[in-house]
Amino acid sequence: MKLLISIARSLLLARWRQTFIAAIGVTFSITMFVALLGFMQGLNEMMDSLFLNRTPDIRLYNEIKPAAIQPVQLSPDYHSDHHFIHSIKATGHRQEIYNSIAILEALRRDKRVAGVASKIVMQAFFNEGTIDITATVNGIEEYQESALLHFADYIVEGDASSLEKVPNSIILGKALAENLLVNVGEMVQLTTPEGERFPLKVVALWQSGIQDFDKVQSFTSLATAQKLLGKTRNYLTDIQIRLKNSTMAPILAREYSRLFNTSAQDIDTLNSEFETGSFIRSLISYAVGITLLTVSGFGIYNILNMLIYEKMDSIAILKATGFAGRDVKRIFIFIAMSIGIFGGLAGLILGFLLSLAIDQLPFHATSLPTMKTYPVSYDPFIYCIGGAFSLISTYLAGWLPSRKASKIDPVVIIRGK
Amino acid sequence: MADIILEARNINKYFHDPVDVKVLSDINFKVNKGEFVTVTGKSGCGKSTLLYILSTMDTDYEGELLIDNVSMVNRPEAMLARVRNEKIGFVFQFHYLLNEFSVLHNVMLPGLKLNRYPIQQVEHHAMEKLTRLGIEKLANKKANQVSGGEKQRIAIARALINDPCIIMGDEPTGNLDKKNSELVFDIFKQLAEEYKQTLLIVTHDQEFAARTHRRIQMEDGKIIPDVH
Question: Are residues A335 and A397 in contact, defined by beta-carbon separation less than 8 angstroms?
Answer without folding.
Answer: no
